[in-house]
Amino acid sequence: MRVLVVEDEIRMARLLKRALEEEGHAVDIAANGEDGAWLATENSYGAIILDVMLPDFDGFELCRRLRGQGQWAPVLMLTARDSVGDRVRGLDAGADDYLVKPFSLLELAARLRALARRGELPRPVVIAEGDLRLDPAAKRAWRAETELRLSPKELALLELFLRHPGDVLTRSQIIEAVWDFAYDGGSNVVDQYVNYLRRKVDAPFGRHDLETVRGIGYRLRHGWKRP
């Protein structure tokens, strides 16, 4: 497997290169984010090892850029800081796994093998359908170039529709995913929030993409083209 290592510490980069080559991998090294981004777009890698602390822009930003460009090679992030916040930032940026320094080279090799088994499955940081986009980590959404002002529940509801474009979602499914409490068949909370969402996502743009499926629930139209 060909592996890209983005690491600015020369000794660490050499150590990783030697250890991975002993495992039978071909290894490319980049010392900063700019070079790492260029190599990742010019070559096909089975996995990318990405240090968080880089001299130009950090590993979180590099990971976001790669995912934004449609680069889906599994990413293993390395950091010297063992904090929940850093792990969350890395995963939200599109990383697949996280390893805290100092670490065992045997564990690194095992994690790479596990990542390689996943393959290059699309894991976009920003989910989209047509001209609707949503960044779950930043809690922001857009219709084309217009940012939408949505409440937390409206964002959660839009995210659910964007993750299931074209699928008919029942009221029970929506309740369980967005509100996480037992569905009350007499409650119209779903209908109310779908209407709130339509007023912000569809109506101002002359669109009708949130469709009612009579007697069942709702769906977001799939496969439509941007105007």
From TrEMBL:
<feature type="domain" description="Response regulatory">
    <location>
        <begin position="2"/>
        <end position="116"/>
    </location>
</feature>
<dbReference type="Pfam" id="PF00486">
    <property type="entry name" value="Trans_reg_C"/>
</dbReference>
<dbReference type="InterPro" id="IPR036388">
    <property type="entry name" value="WH-like_DNA-bd_sf"/>
</dbReference>
<keyword id="KW-0902">Two-component regulatory system</keyword>
<dbReference type="GO" id="GO:0032993">
    <property type="term" value="C:protein-DNA complex"/>
</dbReference>
<dbReference type="Pfam" id="PF00072">
    <property type="entry name" value="Response_reg"/>
</dbReference>
<keyword id="KW-0597">Phosphoprotein</keyword>
<dbReference type="GO" id="GO:0006355">
    <property type="term" value="P:regulation of DNA-templated transcription"/>
</dbReference>
<dbReference type="InterPro" id="IPR001789">
    <property type="entry name" value="Sig_transdc_resp-reg_receiver"/>
</dbReference>
<keyword id="KW-0805">Transcription regulation</keyword>
<protein>
    <submittedName>
        <fullName>DNA-binding response regulator</fullName>
    </submittedName>
</protein>
<dbReference type="GO" id="GO:0005829">
    <property type="term" value="C:cytosol"/>
</dbReference>
<dbReference type="GO" id="GO:0000976">
    <property type="term" value="F:transcription cis-regulatory region binding"/>
</dbReference>
<keyword id="KW-0804">Transcription</keyword>
<dbReference type="InterPro" id="IPR011006">
    <property type="entry name" value="CheY-like_superfamily"/>
</dbReference>
<feature type="domain" description="OmpR/PhoB-type">
    <location>
        <begin position="124"/>
        <end position="222"/>
    </location>
</feature>
<feature type="modified residue" description="4-aspartylphosphate">
    <location>
        <position position="51"/>
    </location>
</feature>
<dbReference type="GO" id="GO:0000156">
    <property type="term" value="F:phosphorelay response regulator activity"/>
</dbReference>
<keyword id="KW-0238">DNA-binding</keyword>
<feature type="DNA-binding region" description="OmpR/PhoB-type">
    <location>
        <begin position="124"/>
        <end position="222"/>
    </location>
</feature>
<dbReference type="InterPro" id="IPR001867">
    <property type="entry name" value="OmpR/PhoB-type_DNA-bd"/>
</dbReference>
<dbReference type="InterPro" id="IPR039420">
    <property type="entry name" value="WalR-like"/>
</dbReference>
